[in-house]
Amino acid sequence: MAFLLGCENIHLEYPTKVIFESLSLGVNDGDCIGVVGRNGDGKSSLLGLFNGSIEPDSGRVTKTRTTRIQMLGQTDALDDEASILHNIVGDVPEYVWASDPSIRKILKGMIGDLDLERKVAGLSGGERRRVDLCRVLIEPADVLLLDEPTNHLDMGAINWLAEHLKARFRRKEGALVVVTHDRWFLDEVCQSMWEVHDGIVEPFEGGYSAYVQQRVERDRQIAQAEAKRRNLARRELAWLSRGARARSTKPKFHVEAARELIAQEPPIRNTVELKRAAVSRLGKKCVDVVDATFSYDGERKILDDVTWLIGPGDRYGLLGENGVGKSTLLDLVQGKLSPQSGRVKIGKTVKFAFLSQKLEELEEQNSSLVREVLNRYQSHYEVDGKIVSPAMLLEQLGFEKAYLNTRVQDLSGGQKRRLQLMLILLDAPNVLILDEPSNDMDTDMMVAMENVLDTWPGTLIVVTHDRFLMERVTDDQFALVDGKLTHCPRGVDDYLYLLEERDKAREAEREHERRVKEAAERGAGADGLASGAATGAGAAGAAGAGANTATPAAAASALSNTELQKAKKRLRSLETKMETANKRLDEAKAAMFEVEPSDYVALGEAQAKVDEIQEQLDELEMEWLEVSELLGA
């Protein structure tokens, strides 16, 4: 594989920390590399070195003369006063970029229905991220550097980006280096990993899952070597104090295949025990949202007849695109909003805790030491049957003891996030709602947080665009699409399927409207020609009236009697098939309601049957509309 980019003996040091000691590595044609490491260890600095935006203190960055580099930073430099389109393509003429199918595909996948002439200034964080990604992706590049590309993106956009990058680098042409905390994305896109730690970059083969397995083995070997060193030191000390002792053989520890290592681990959480504990804290009632409808100022319905029954110990994930109404639904669940129709019933013993995306809850603690903040709470808590102190719980969240004497305002974003979560848990809620809990966290921090949540005995609702986190800490997922809440038995895959079907339906509707418009224009054009050929004021007047009242029915006049009879026969046949399909659909839905809710396999099969029949019905309805249009019905 051809060399594209690399560095030799790089030393990079900031006033408070050495980032890289003597770093040498390279990027070759065909590489798709994921970069992981703790916050502050140098992941973004590594991309900056490659991009040339950061100069090393010593050593050099090397690349071939023809290597083209494109980089997506964590923050964008978009022109707020310029349009979306201008920020993406600049001054390139429309006939140039519009004739490129790859650019059109990127615009459709990332920008979607956004108005390209809209100014960037009014866009949300997620929309700005999409624009910046488009700007980078359409440029020709031999090395693509992406720093946290999934930030602010919803799952649909993350899935599209993963598919795009896999297709782009499938031929092993060019290279990708991506820094992200999204573990699903790393597994889906990357074929190798770099871990940045302690001034070095350590390579691993495979995606994130393979990296974790290799890292476990590496840590075991380090621990084994350290144990041997300590054993030797103890023997030496014993010999010095009491004389030589008889040697004894030690049992050797052998590591089997990764799957055997995993098989030895107990289940992630004891669901039955956690539900039992949750019922004892909550009683039998938690939150019931029944037939709830909500809209702002009487406009489009944000929630449309939503029913969501949340019980003690349920661990639910809420999926949905940015701006679809997830926050509104969570406000209804907590009683902060009231539905315009339907009802929300909250159990008397429910105590909510809400982890927001912002860190406003910590602002009043900014000048306090972390140790002082912890001292304001109880000295001991029971967690998973064990008595722990707040400091011990914070340590479980990956907090080092050295930071206990640090002021809250001096903590990193990830550290503040974990402290925020822990303080919420110390208030002993029984219903915990987490809104994007993975913000500002690296992969190790997220694993530590997940381990704490695994043993938390209460009702848990999680909103996140991190697919790995969603599927790890929740047991069931629900999707909010076009105001409707749908259970997704197969998790995120079901949600992505719902989005795909919705987009197909929208595309079909737009295509139908286009065909109707074209048919109307053809009918009006034919009438116009007839009026032009006619002579006399009466003929002209009749033609003018015909032009003003042209409808799709004009298309039917172009059919011969035989074609007309065939079209009518086809219409009757389609109506019969649609009636049969509707009956089959009702039967399939009724059968799905009879399936045991806990039997996810059977539910998935039943849902697949419903989806299959619905798809057939949609095709029949589309054909019926086309034939009706032809007949002028």
Describe the structure.
There is one protein chain. The protein is of the alpha/beta class and 633 residues long. Helix content is 46%, strand content 19%.
Principal-axes shape call: globular
What is the typical, i.e. mean, pLDDT?
Answer: 81
Estimated structural class: alpha/beta
Distance between the termini: 63 Å
Strand order of the largest sheet: 5-6-7-3-8-9
Helix content: 40-55%
Largest sheet: 6 strands, mixed
The low-confidence parts are: 242-265, 528-557
Alpha plus pi helix count: 21
Number of strands: 20
Query: How much of the polypeptide forms β-strand, as a percent range?
Result: 15-25%
SSE topology:
Layout: E1 3-14, E2 17-28, E3 32-37, H1 43-51, E4 58-63, E5 69-72, H2 84-89, H3 94-97, H4 101-110, H5 125-137, E6 143-147, H6 155-168, E7 175-179, H7 183-189, E8 192-197, E9 200-205, H8 208-242, H9 258-263, H10 271-282, E10 287-295, E11 301-310, E12 315-319, H11 326-334, E13 341-346, E14 352-355, H12 370-374, E15 381-383, E16 386-388, H13 390-396, H14 413-426, E17 431-435, H15 443-454, E18 459-463, H16 467-473, E19 476-481, E20 484-488, H17 492-533, H18 537-548, H19 553-556, H20 561-593, H21 600-631
Parallel strand pairs: 3-7, 3-8, 5-6, 6-7, 12-18, 12-19, 14-17, 17-18
Antiparallel strand pairs: 1-2, 1-4, 8-9, 10-11, 10-13, 15-16, 19-20
